Amino acid sequence: MRRQLTHVLLASTWAACSLVAPPLHAQPAPSPSADVLRLVEPRYSGARARETVAFLDQFVRWPGNRGFDASIDHVAQRLERAGYVREDRAPASARLTYRIERYPMTNPAWEPRSASVEIVGQRAPVLQLATNRNMLATNSWSTPDTGVVAELVDAGTGTPAALDSVHVAGRIVIADASVGRLFAEAVLKRGALGVLAYAMPAYTQPSKNTHSIQFGGIPYDTTHRAWGIALSHDARTRLRAALAKGAVRVRVKTGVAWTPNAVERTVVAEVRGSSHPAERFVFSAHVQEPGANDNASGVGAQVEMARVAADLVKAGKADPKRTITFLWGLEIRSTDRYITQDSVRARGIRWGLSLDMVGEDTKKTGGTFLIEKMPDPSAIWTRGEDRHSEWGGSPLTKEQMAPHYFNDYVLNRCLELAATNGWVVRTNPFEGGSDHTPFLRAKKPGLLFWHFTDQYYHTDGDRIDKVSAAELKNVGVSALTSALALASADGAAARAIVGEVERAALVRLAAERALGAAEVAKGGDIAKERDILETWGSWYDGALATTADIEVGGASDETVRAIDEGRARVREALRGHLSALTPS
């Protein structure tokens, strides 16, 4: 596990987080969200969120199939119970509405129904779908009821050379390779009947979780109508042990359901802003994939967030001035559609937050809660207390930076809650791969809430028993608090956020100067260290400039002055650190 980061960015809980005191001119100000947190926290039920997770966990959810559609219907039913009205039935004055968007699919929807792998002559099957729900690759076809029986050949690592070294045509191939790549090479190019593929990354601990299988897919192919099977560590061991004794024949049975003319559906729910409805905070949680944490947990957390938001509005406890939007659909595509379909709507999107793998029981999975930041200089120079996850990230360039207050603002809301209950909150530099990326592509602020490293990631071990109601609550409360506070931010709230970002900048510059001095003392390149400092200074100068959009109705003169003064102090601090870094 990664060690916990010492976050020095929280405005209102310096002492609780054992932080170094900030300069006198940047003393912590009142929290911009404390009142909102007090409204949200007691109303949010992690147990209720987990009920939705449990419902979705019944199904292997791929777009257009029975499980995906049942999940969409479940979300809609929960929204209606919470008071959301279907748009086509809602009066013009309705503040709580939802709709289900429908998009025709190019290919039929796919659903696994049965699968097994047996070694001919052995009674116990090697794999069964009933206990290994991820074994059958998406887009696999059904075999005859009696299955396919053929000789098994070992192609090692599944490279073209390895496949050419054995005769695979008319046979079943086993190899250490992704199921999609092996299928393309062995079946589509060389005439194999089907493939048994093993590709379990080290962080899934396959020698411990010997029956785990990560899901995978093969190309949709109506010519060969073949299949791919992903193997567990145990299945791979058994098959190769049998091969070591001589020739092996295996029987593979698969049963799938195809739904022609399928429709991909997305739920869009909104809490309409009372005075600036065109400006909005957008949440997204993807429905597809077969896991509980990935991503039934994001769906469940977000459904409960929508319920609490509705309760607060109906009770007159909250009056969001800007709109809060919730999306449930297909990962990345649904969010991208929402942003790109309507240019007028897109102009009003102020913030985006994706909930993906947010309910983990961290003691069971080994993952920890993470906020994946918008691109900042830690994604160029990952050092000090910054760490990439085991998902990994490639170094970015200065041109890819996205200066914005959103990183520190949302982190502070999480740490604000963590100070009350010991919740572990960490961050990672930008890596990509989920629903926050469409926001960033559209040059909108976008963050990801997730957990990693998870030993059950994308495996059939990712089931409801790995989901924590308490973790769902922590994530959901922090996310909704973040949105409600920004949706109605007045001048005082805006200036409090300006203060938070300034303090974050000052602490970051001090930390980078210390790291730079240590590198220079070891013979490091002083020009590089100055560049790092200057890049962070420029990033935070830009982040402070973006705080002008926080205040509903536009930044007041007082807020503009606070921004200008904060930027001036950060620039002054940068000059001091650069001077201190340069030998006299």
Detailed description of the structure:
This protein has 584 residues and is an alpha/beta fold. The protein has 16 helices and 16 strands. The chain has helices at residues 34-40, 46-56, 66-82, 160-164, 179-188, 233-243, 296-314, 333-340, 343-347, 362-365, 406-421, 437-441, 469-487, 491-521, 526-546, 557-581, and strands at residues 85-86, 96-104, 109-119, 127-128, 148-154, 172-175, 194-197, 227-230, 249-259, 263-271, 276-286, 322-329, 349-355, 368-372, 426-428, 446-452. Helix 15 runs antiparallel to helix 16. The protein starts with 33 loop residues before the first helix and ends with a helix.
Q: How do the strands and helices of this protein lay out in sequence?
A:
Elements (H helix, E strand, L loop, with lengths): L33 H7 L5 H11 L9 H17 L2 E2 L9 E9 L4 E11 L7 E2 L19 E7 L5 H5 L7 E4 L3 H10 L5 E4 L29 E4 L2 H11 L5 E11 L3 E9 L4 E11 L9 H19 L7 E8 L3 H8 L2 H5 L1 E7 L6 H4 L2 E5 L33 H16 L4 E3 L8 H5 L4 E7 L16 H19 L3 H31 L4 H21 L10 H25 L3
Parallel strand pairs: 1-2, 5-6, 6-7, 7-8, 11-12, 11-13, 13-16, 14-15
Antiparallel strand pairs: 2-10, 3-4, 3-9, 5-9, 10-12, 14-16
Helix pairs in contact: 2-7, 2-13, 3-7, 7-13, 11-13, 14-15, 14-16, 15-16
